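Standup, Tuesday
Yesterday: got the pipeline producing C-alpha cells again.
Today: sanity-check two examples.
Blockers: none.

Example 1:
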Amino acid sequence: MNTSTAYSQRAARSIESAGRVGTLRGASVQPDLRRLLQVTTGLVLTALTALVVVFTVAAVHSNNQIDELHGQGVPVTVTVTGCLGLLGGSGSNPAGYSCRGTYVLRGHRYTQPLPGSSAFRPGARVAAVAVPGDPSLVSLESTLRTQHASASAFVLPIVLGAVLLALVGLLVWRARAGRRPAPSAIC
C-alpha cells in the first residue's frame, strides 16, 4: 500500500467517525439562522423606511414645483437649439427626444433642457412658462395645462408605509407572543 492510499483511507475513516461531511481541518460552520433573520429583517425595515421618506419628499417637491409654475410662472418663448434622439431597451428602439432651448426672462438669457420627449426642429419657437425666482424651473405651456398638484403623488409612499407598518406590527405581535407565559394545564 502506498502512502497516498493510506492517507486517503485514514481521512475517510476520520470523516465517517466524525459524522460530518464538508469540514475543513476540523472546522465546521454552524450559521446562526436567528441572527441572520434579525439582520435581514433590520435591513428590509431600514430600506422600506428610506423608500417611504425618499418618495414622500419627491412627491412634495413635485407638487411644490407644479404649484410654483401655476402661481409664479410667467410666459416665455423658448427657441429650440437642438434635439437628440433617445434610444431605449437594446439601443435599437426610439424612446423619445431630449431638446434644449433658450429663452429670455427679465433681460437674462437662459439655456435649459425642455421637459418632455417631443421632437422640435431647431429654431422652432415653443410657448413655455418659467419661474422668475428659479429660471431652471420651466415647463411647456401645453404640458402645464394638464399638470396639477395632486394627492396621487403620495400613493406609492402610502403603500410602502402601510407595508412597513404591517411588518413592524407583525414583529411586535410576535415579540409579545413569545414573552407570554404558557397556559397552565388544569387537572
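Example 2:
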Amino acid sequence: MPRKVVVFVLLGILGSGCSASKPWGQGSVVGALAGAAALGTAGGIVANNVTPPFENKDADRGAGVAIGLFTGAVVGAVVGHVFFDPEVVVEAPAAVPVEQEKIVLHGVEFDFASATLRAGAKPILEQAAQLLAESPDERVEVRGYTDSVGSEGFNLTLSRRRARAVATYLESAGVGAQRLSVEGFGMADPVADNATAEGREQNRRVELVPLD
C-alpha cells in the first residue's frame, strides 16, 4: 500500500476518534462511496503500471483495486463523517423545581367540634417536632381542614383553631414560632368522600407544608 494512503488511513482513524460523539450518517456513506471509487481506481492504475511489472498483472491489478476499494471506503467514510455528518445537539432538560413533601399528621385528632388535642395526638406531634428539628431553617405552614359536616363559616374557623393548636404544641416541643405560620381551609380540598365516616375522618386533618 502506498505510504500516503497509510498516512491518510491513520489520520482518518484519529479523526473518527475525535468525532465519536456524532452519529454516523449520510456524510459517512457518501464519503465511503466516493473514497472507494477514487482509491479503487487508483489501486488498479498503480498495480497496472508498477515498475518492474508484476508477473501476474491481472491478479495484481485485482488486488490493487480491492485494496484501493477497502482503503478508500474506510478513509472516505471517516472523512465524510468528520466533515459532513451534523453534530447532534442534546439540549439539557429544563430545571424542574423539587417540590418538598408535605407531612400529613395522620392520627392527630381533636374533640368533637373543638380544637382540643386528644391524648393520642401528642406522640405524633413529638415525632413531627423531631423531624422539623432536622431542618432548622425550613419554614412550615400548618394547614387545618375539616369534613363537610356543619356550616362553611364554622368549619373555616374550626380549621384555623385546630391548626393553631398544632402549631402551639410544636412550639412547646422546641420548634421556633418564627418557622410556623397557620392557615385554615375548612371543608375545602377534601382527600376522601365526605359521604362516608371513613372519608370524613380522612378529611379532618392537619398538614405541615414546607414554604421554602
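Quick observation on example 2: Confidence is low (pLDDT under 50) at residues 1-14, 16-20. The domain at 103-210 is CATH 3.30.1330.60 (60s Ribosomal Protein L30; Chain: A;).
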